[in-house]
């Protein structure tokens, strides 16, 4: 029987052993934050930057502010003679924290505490594929 032996524990010990585990901590200890706009951000820094960009948009310094915008990262396959070859292949996705227009030019921002090797690869890929330099704040 599965429950055999539990009767030897007092109720306090039983409750202690059966409590759920603490929630998993976020990568790099970032704390998910909710802004006054009711939007959940990945960190306090990202939430603060969102408020600054919203203010800039209200003063019409930037336009078309969006957040969490995905960009497909593509490449040509090594063997283009493959029968299944149909052009470019998506090798990953970069999700920009913020995208906006400033003086008619697209601005892409990423709030970074610690730039990982994967992010550095994606940043280079964005520069080569789209000609976009990511602004890190």
Key phrases:
four-stranded mixed beta sheet, two-stranded antiparallel sheet
Description:
By secondary structure, the protein is α+β, with helices and mostly antiparallel strands. 27% of the residues lie in helices and 28% in strands. It has 3 helices and 6 strands. The strands form 2 sheets. The protein has a 4-stranded mixed β-sheet. Strands 1-2 form a two-stranded antiparallel ribbon.
Helical residue percent?
25-40%
Topology as a string of helices (H) and strands (E)? HEEHEEEHE
The span between the termini is 58 Å
Mean pLDDT: 81
The radius of gyration computed from the alpha-carbon positions, rounded to a whole number of angstroms, is: 23 Å
- Unreliable spans are none
How many strands, what sense, and barrel or not for the largest sheet?
A: 4 strands, mixed
Counting helices, strands and paired strands, the structural category is alpha+beta
The tally of helices reads 3
Basic shape: flat
Short recap of the structure:
The chain is 27% helix and 28% strand.
Topology (SSEs and partners):
Layout: H1 11-18, E1 33-34, E2 40-41, H2 44-58, E3 63-75, E4 89-102, E5 105-110, H3 117-130, E6 135-136
Parallel strand pairs: 5-6
Antiparallel strand pairs: 1-2, 3-4, 4-5
């Amino acid at each position: 029987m599965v429950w055999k032996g539990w009767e030897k524990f007092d109720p306090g010990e039983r409750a202690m052993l059966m409590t759920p585990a603490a929630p998993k901590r976020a990568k790099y200890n970032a704390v998910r934050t909710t802004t006054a706009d009711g939007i959940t951000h990945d960190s306090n820094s990202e939430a603060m930057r969102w408020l600054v960009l919203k203010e800039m948009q209200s003063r019409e310094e930037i336009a078309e502010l969006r957040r969490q915008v995905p960009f497909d990262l593509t490449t040509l396959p090594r063997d283009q003679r493959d029968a299944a070859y149909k052009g470019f292949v998506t090798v990953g996705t970069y999700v920009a924290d913020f995208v906006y227009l400033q003086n008619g030019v697209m601005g892409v921002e990423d709030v970074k505490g610690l730039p990982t090797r994967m992010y550095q690869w994606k940043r280079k890929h964005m520069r080569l594929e789209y000609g976009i330099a990511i602004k890190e704040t």
